[in-house]
Write a structure and sequence with these properties.
Order of helices and strands: EEEEEEEEEEE
Shape: globular
Helix content: under 10%
Structural class: mainly beta
Distance between the termini: 40 Å
Oligomer: single chain
Amino acid sequence: QVQLVESGGGLVQPGGSLRLSCATSESILMINTMGWYRQAPGKERELVASIASGGTTNYADSVKDRFTISRDNAKNTVYLQMNSLKSEDTAVYYCNRHSILSGMDYWGKGTLVTVSS
């Protein structure tokens, strides 16, 4: 089955930057959408950013112009570059693969991002 492994989380100062990585066990060139979600304490999980196999991206309004989702097809890896981080960005970030053909969602176990001085 599809496995997703996130890395790159940690403690970062407000205004700082962090890059998350999601390594996949399957080609990201398959018919699927890769995305990053996050869940903050006491909040519902929300979509942060996504990128389709054709390259189309979308972002939550709260991270637009600060975060960038990208992919390295050769490495089967999706990245989330996070700049100008705020305390409100503190959350567990999850990598997601949504299969268009099967309709299934696959999730990583999450990586914690803490934005604090």
